[in-house]
Structure formats: structure tokens, C-alpha cells
Specification:
Layout: H1 2-6, H2 9-20, H3 29-62, H4 67-89, H5 91-106, H6 112-150, H7 176-222, H8 224-230, H9 236-294, H10 300-332, H11 334-340, H12 350-367, H13 382-408
Length: about 400
Amino acid sequence: MQAEHHLDISINLSTFFLKNIGVWISHDPSERRRMRMLLACTVWMLLLGIVINARDLYFALLYNGDILYVVTNNITLIISLVKMCNIIMYKGKFLNLIVNMQQNFWNVNYDYHEKEILDDCKKICIFFISSVTTIAICAIISYLMTPFVAQSGNNESERMFPFDIWINLPLTRTPYYEIIFFIQAICLYYIGISSFCFDNIFCIMAVHLAGQFRILRHRLTKLCDTENEIRKKDSQSTLAKQMYKFYEQFKECVRHHQALIKYCQNLENVYTMITLGQVLVFSVLICLFGYQVLVATASFARRSIFVFLLSGSTFLLFMVTYSCNGVIEHSDNVAVGAYSALWTIIPMDKFGRMLRKDLIMVIRRSRRVCCLTANGFFPVSLESYTKILSTALSYFTLLSNRVETTNGA
């Protein structure tokens, strides 16, 4: 099973980018030192990006520049820094979630139907993560290519950078231009990775958690296969042995359910603040991205950036809410699996009475669905996605009307 997941492009992509920013499992001392250096470099680049964009915002306000463009870049950068700080704060728990997923979700012997469920989870993760990663990389490339497209045909004195930098130096001359451009490109790379890599691994964990709830439901339903064997037996001793075996299998299902509930709680503890930040900010970001694409009088090269940012943000938000919605739906369906066991034809002996009582407890607990919340304020689901898009559209309408009124005045 582990070898199969080494071929999973979604896991390979997530692992690659997490290693690039220094947040991954390392057992070798030299590798651990390298991870610390990469993590320090990532944090330093994020802070440097904040300094550059903060100065750009100051001078945009001072000289009446494109304020909305600079504000959009600053919000995107801040949300990346918040994700990074939150993961650093819960780094141990975050890595334990990955180890737990590898050991208890993947390296397990499954039957044919359970392998089909895992394959479905794998396909969903590949679709989401490949799409989000591709869009994010295209946005990074668009940022880097915009200066070259804008300055094509101009002389060297009109060289541009991906982000305006305000330093009293001849920045358009060699080697200052090349040095500053390289630094901004490195900052942009780390900012871009930090904006989506943690959401990618969150999608993998949440989708596979929902898949484990589906597997648990299948196992509870499959308990009736043992009962089909019971009806073929006449001996009371054989019946008692089969009932004991049946009850032991049921207890394994209960332990599995408890482990999944605990895993969901740990995932909630690590990601709840990130989820809250994204839910609160993404409506504003989608509004600003849409404004830059549809309304702002910018160059084609700059608009191409926000086409990718708009599509990427909406798709990333859909990925997160879809993953959370799957956990809610399939954790609730565990009750259906418990009720589907053929408990009605089980004898009313010692194990039969115990089983009926315990099935009722499983059904009641399953109706308290597992969910991933925005810091406990509300559960995140596909309904949250529609509300955020609706709010973003409202903000976009207000912003457009406000700008038109200002220009008319």
C-alpha cells in the first residue's frame, strides 16, 4: 500500500513543496538541520516580502498609485505568513497527523471494496492538488513575466520589477537590477508555495479521513455476512462462537471510529485558525481579484496575473470546503452502516443484547457529526463556499459602484 502511494502525484507534489519550505518529517540529523535552514529561509523571505509590499503601499498612498493592486498583494502575503506561523506553532501536531495518516490510513490491508474507496480518495486528491498547484505556478510565472512584457521595446532605463521597490539606488542598471529581480523572484516563490502547500496536505488528510469513514460504514454493513453463516449452522456452540467473533469484529469497528474521531479533533486543532482566516479573507480577496480582472485599467500582463489568482482562490476555497463537507457527510453515514447490520435476526443472548445496545451508542455518536470548523464559530462545508462567493459578489458590486462614483465626481 505504501508503494502505491509513492506513485500518487498529489502526495508527491505536497511532499515536494513542504520539503522546500522546511516543514517535513526528518530523522537524519543532517537532514533535520537542512529543514531548519529552509524553514528559517522561508520565514525570512516572507518577512522581506512584507517589508517590500508595506513600503510599496506607503508610497502608493503618498503618490496616488494603484492602491487596490498593492492592497491585494499585501493581503495575499499576510494570509501566507499567517498560515506559516500557525503551522510552525503546531509543527509537532502537524507532522504527527501526516505520520498517523501514513501508518493507519495507507499501510493497512484492505479488501477489494475498501481499496476502491481509497482509489476514489486518490483520484479526488490528484484532481484538486494538481489543479491548485498548476494555477499557483502559472500565477507565479505571470508575476515574473509581467515586467518583461511591459518593458518590451523600451530602453534599459525603463526596466521594471515584479513589485515596485523604493530604494535610492540606480536599480535599473546592471548588476543592481539582476540582484533585486532575483531576490524578488525567490521571495515570490516562497510566498506562492506557502499560500497553497498547507491547503494541499489538508485536502489529502481530510479526503482520506472521509474515506476512512466510508470504509468504517462498509465494515459495519459487512458484519451481516457473518450472520449469513450463522443461519447455516444448527449447533448452539457453533452459534455462540460465531456471535463472539461477530462481537469482536464490532469492537474493532468501534476502536476504528474512536481513532477517526480523535484524528478529526487533532486536524481541527491544527487548522482551525487557518480555516477561519481563509473564510474571512477570501471573500475580500476574490472581490479584489475580480475587480483587477474585470474593471481595473491595467495592462494585459497584469490582468493575466489576477486571472490565475481569481481562478486559483475560488478553486482552492472549493477544495477546502469540499474536503470539510466530505468529513461531515461520511461521518454521519456511519450511523447508516451501523443500522444496516442485520441485528434484527441476531439471537437475544448475552452478545446479542450487548450488540444491540452498542449499536445504538454508535448511531447516537455518529449523529454528532465530525466537522472542521472556523475556530469553533461554524462548521465549514459547501454551504460556506456559496456564502463566501455571494459575499464576494456583493463586495465587488459595492466596490465597482464606489469607484464609478469617485471617478464621476
